[in-house]
Amino acid sequence: MHAKSSGGFIIVLSVFCSMCLSLAPWPDQIAILMPNWTLLTLMYWSIALPHKVSVLTGFVTGLLFDVLTGSLLGQNALIFSIASFFCHSLYSRLRNYRIWQQAIFVLIFLLLIKLISLWIDRFTMNTGYTYQYWLQVLLSAMVWPAVFASLRLVRRRFRVQ
């Protein structure tokens, strides 16, 4: 019988892989529409294992993501921390929802997160945005069932608890 895995390495590896997916050199038309893989992965682990993935995990992941993407230092740290906090606060309720209900929650939550990001961008750089800015949120919500299913499979396969 195999010993139960604590799963810390698997969690870090999945966040690392999601960062690689986010940072890969995609063509501009695809990169604009690319879901936020790192945030979706962090949200999954915050819901699935709230005792392992905390707000501090979200903050550190966000800082690392800020450094890797060259964005304003602390912007993604704030966003990932807020996401971890709300997922951690609502994990017992979210676990009982069906996958399509979770996708609706992800859609609404990512819209709010995108508004915060837009507010920070406007405050610091005064950048413009198009409808594609909001399509990323819709695509992230549409991808949520696949992210959820694949990470749940990884969690069960490697007995992450």
Layout of strands and helices, then pairs:
Blueprint lengths: L7 H16 L4 H6 L3 H12 L6 H15 L5 H15 L1 H6 L2 H26 L6 H27 L4
Helix pairs in contact: 1-3, 3-5, 3-8, 4-5, 5-7, 7-8
Shape: globular
Q: Pairing-aware structural class of the strands and helices?
A: mainly alpha
The amount of helix comes to over 70%
Number of beta-strand segments: 0
What is the arithmetic mean of pLDDT? Answer: 91
Q: Given the structure, what is the number of helices?
A: 8
Distance between the termini: 16 Å
Described by strand count, sense and barrel closure, the largest sheet is: none
Low-confidence stretches: none
Q: Domains counted in the coordinates: how many?
A: 1
Radius of gyration: 16 Å
Order of secondary-structure elements: HHHHHHHH
**Per DSSP, what share of the residues sits in E-state strands of 2 or more residues?**
under 5%
